[in-house]
Amino acid sequence: MILTVLRVELTKVFSKWRTIIGFLVIAVIVPVVIVAMKVEGMRFFQYSTQALQDAFTFTGNLMNGYTISYIILGMLYIHVPFLTTLVAGDILAGEATAGTYRVLLTRPVSRFSVVTAKWMASMVYANLLVLLMAILSIVIGLLVLGTGELLVVRSQIVILAQDDIIWRLASAYAFAALSMSTVAAIAFLFSSLVENAIGPIMTTMGIIIVLTILSSIDTPLFDPLRNVAFTSHMIGWRLLFDPIVDWTRVSNSAMILAGHIAVCFGATLFIMKRKDILT
User: Fold this and answer.
1) How far apart are CA 241 and CA 257, in angstroms?
2) Is 182 contained in some domain?
3) Buried/exposed code over 220-230 (b: 16+ C-beta within 10 A; e: otherwise)
4) Would you say residue 279 lies in a domain?
5) Which of 117, 126, 264, 279 is a plausible cystine mate for 189, CB 3.0–4.6 Å?
6) What sign does the dihedral 132-137-141-142 (CA atoms) show?
7) Domain of 29?
């Protein structure tokens, strides 16, 4: 039953322009960034490593397809959350706006099946966005910029060999998909509370901005917040590019994100089961 409802919901989701917009944005941004790096890549590389130029000599094709895939993945947390909320924030609120809640929730299909199918449709959309970004960045990046080692400059300099990169990128994009699923789940929850899609979209993005700012303030006062805030764990993919991956920390961040998804889904299901459809 749920799979049947899911097919209907996916058809509804992918028939809307706001859904297509997300894929179009990624399909345009990724090639543009890659071409820009093809033209100005070395200048960008020299600027980002200028503090290291006196101490190190860099050789080889370091501005390659793997590097650009890593850079694009870092851009993910700026653009994709908003694209994700466009659909997840509308999928329930849109029914209220259109006045179709009464018809939707009084059908023979149970409310559990309807909510679960809509939640699954939101997850599918969020994961497809990340999958498209991964495919475009890696495939086009390698075709345009070629292969080479991956240079990661953070608190330490890490140079990863070519045969040690693909599994890290694949794992990182999979982690990013989990992160975007968390954003979708939060927007989905807020979508059940209001009757206009603008509210869930703006509320979710506002929460992301506020938690990101508070988590970045280096003070013990916000340590408890950093430990539980989903925004602190969304960047857990960076751990996958350490010389030796700390799988304990990666697993901990993944479980916290999965916990947020489960709580949001459970809360949405509770709200929708108790929703008064007579008003």
Assistant:
1) 19
2) yes
3) eebeeebeebb
4) no
5) 264
6) negative
7) 2-274
Task: At 276, list the tokens.
Answer: 């008064």
Question: 11-33 burial, b for 16+ CB within 10 Å, e for fewer?
Answer: eebeeeeebeebbebbeebbeeb
Q: Does 51 map to a domain?
A: yes
| Number of structural domains in the chain | 1
**Residue the block writes with tokens 């993005």:** 205
Per-residue exposure over 59-97, b if at least 16 CB sit within 10 Å of its own CB, e if not: eeebbbbbbbbbbbbeebbebbbbbbbbbbbbbbbbbbe
Per residue of the chain (279 residues), what is the pLDDT tens digit?
678 888 888 888 888 888 899 899 999 999 998 888 887 766 666 655 555 555 555 555 667 888 889 989 988 777 789 999 989 998 888 777 666 766 666 667 788 888 899 999 999 999 999 999 999 999 999 999 888 888 787 666 778 888 889 999 999 999 999 999 999 999 999 998 887 878 898 999 999 989 888 877 777 777 788 888 999 899 899 999 988 899 999 999 999 999 999 999 999 999 888 876 654
**Tokens, residue 5:** 């409802």
Phi then psi for residue 159, to 5 deg, are -115, 115
- What pTM, to 2 d.p., does this model score? 0.89
Question: Within a domain: residue 11?
Answer: yes
